[in-house]
Each structure stands twice: as structure tokens, then as C-alpha cells.
């Protein structure tokens, strides 16, 4: 019985650091590895592992696949009773929200990060003219934004997005301040950092 780490991409520095810290082998995507019953694989972000359903996964590829897709994540969170913004894939519903004065976040990319594929609509433009939208979300004005990491049903880490300390004009740093990503000057921080 042994533990291995399988990373989402070859060359992942964080996966290598974890493998080194744990003193375990980092499996490469092209690795020809024959697992033994009882082996454990720590999945470091891969939704499509090259291994079958052989042994115990920590962070299963199915769970990663859900977490990587914004729509699948919203559906799962809603199913679990977690409070989330209203969302829809129905343009007619998004238009109703817009007509009632809501700001709409339109997503053309479901598996993106760092604000990729997001259009914030706070005017009365025709939503039909925004191409390839796969998800409409009601924008919620907020003071804080968090990322919560859960493992085996327990919270193991909490991060908050904060404005990066920079020298100079912060306003020039934020072309769309409602999207809290690195390009707009936001980074994830832990308590006390």
C-alpha cells in the first residue's frame, strides 16, 4: 500500500512541493503505474485522470470535474442547500432580472478562471447580443469574497480575496472592479495575512 499524487498538469510546482513535503511519488500523466489494492492517490486538480477507478482517491476526479465547471458547481451547491446567487441558463429569465434592475454577470466560459469569459451587464443593453453565454448570474454587491476548501465534508482552509497592495493609482488597476481577479488587483489571502 502506498500514496501517490496525480497532478492536473505536468510540471505543477505546487503538486511537486506537496509530493516533496509528504515524501511520496508524484505520478506523471504518462506514467505507467499498476496500482495495488489499497493504494491511495491524492488528486491534485485533475478531472480526467489516466488511471481507472482502482483504489482510493483523495479528491476524486468526479468532484474535481464538478468544482471546475461553474454551472455544475452552482447546481451542486444548490442541491446541498448552500446559499448562492440566483443563476439560470435561460435568457428569458436573465432578461426578467435585468428588467427589474438587477446587475447580471454573463458567463461565456464555464471552465475558466481569473474572470475569463465574464461580462458584467449593469445597463439595459440587449442581453441577446452578448455571444455564447452559457450561464447568467444575478450580481450580489459584496464587501468580502471567500474561497472555502472542503475535504471529506470538513472545511480545511478559508481564503479571502483582498486588494493587492500596490504603489500608485489603484483605480488604474481595476478596469472592472466587480470582478475580483488578479488582473483587477485582487489576491487570495489567509487570516492574518
SSE map:
Elements: E1 3-7, H1 13-22, E2 25-27, E3 40-44, E4 56-58, H2 61-68, H3 70-79, E5 87-88, H4 91-99, E6 104-107, E7 118-121, E8 135-138, E9 146-151, E10 154-163, E11 186-189
Parallel strand pairs: 1-2, 1-3, 3-4
Antiparallel strand pairs: 5-8, 6-7, 6-8, 9-10, 10-11
Helix pairs in contact: 2-3
Précis, in short:
This protein has 193 residues and is an alpha/beta fold. The protein has helices at 13-22, 61-68, 70-79, 91-99, and strands at residues 3-7, 25-27, 40-44, 56-58, 87-88, 104-107, 118-121, 135-138, 146-151, 154-163, 186-189. The chain has four helices and eleven strands.
Order of strands, main sheet, comes to 2-1-3-4
Report on the biggest sheet. Answer: 4 strands, parallel
Distance between the termini: 38 Å
Query: Count of helices?
Result: 4
Q: Give the DSSP E fraction (strand runs of 2 or more residues).
A: 25-35%
Q: Whole-number average pLDDT? A: 84
Radius of gyration: 20 Å
Helix proportion of residues, in percent? 10-25%
Principal-axes geometry comes out as elongated
Specify the oligomeric state: single chain
Order of helices and strands: EHEEEHHEHEEEEEE
Low-confidence stretches: none
Q: Number of DSSP strands?
A: 11
Helix and strand content put the structural class at alpha/beta
Amino acid at each position: 500500500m502506498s500514496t501517490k499524487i496525480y497532478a492536473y498538469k505536468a510540471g505543477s510546482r505546487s503538486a511537486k512541493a506537496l509530493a516533496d513535503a509528504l515524501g511520496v511519488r508524484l505520478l506523471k500523466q504518462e506514467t505507467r503505474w499498476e496500482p495495488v489494492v489499497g493504494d491511495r492517490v491524492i488528486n491534485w486538480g485533475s478531472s480526467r485522470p489516466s488511471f481507472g477507478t482502482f483504489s482510493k482517491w483523495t479528491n476524486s476526479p468526479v468532484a474535481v470535474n464538478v468544482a471546475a465547471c461553474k454551472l455544475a458547481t452552482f447546481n451542486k451547491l444548490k442541491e446541498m442547500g448552500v446559499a448562492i446567487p440566483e443563476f439560470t441558463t435561460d435568457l428569458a429569465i436573465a432578461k426578467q432580472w435585468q428588467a427589474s434592475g438587477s446587475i447580471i454577470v454573463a458567463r461565456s466560459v464555464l471552465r475558466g478562471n481569473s474572470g475569463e469569459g465574464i461580462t458584467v451587464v449593469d445597463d439595459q443593453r440587449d442581453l441577446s447580443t452578448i455571444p455564447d453565454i452559457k450561464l447568467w448570474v444575478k450580481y450580489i454587491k459584496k464587501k468580502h469574497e471567500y474561497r472555502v476548501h472542503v475535504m471529506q465534508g470538513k472545511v480545511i482552509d478559508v481564503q479571502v480575496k483582498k486588494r493587492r497592495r500596490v504603489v500608485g493609482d489603484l483605480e488604474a488597476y481595476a478596469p472592472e472592479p466587480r470582478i475580483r481577479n488578479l488582473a483587477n488587483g485582487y489576491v487570495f489571502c489567509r487570516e492574518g495575512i
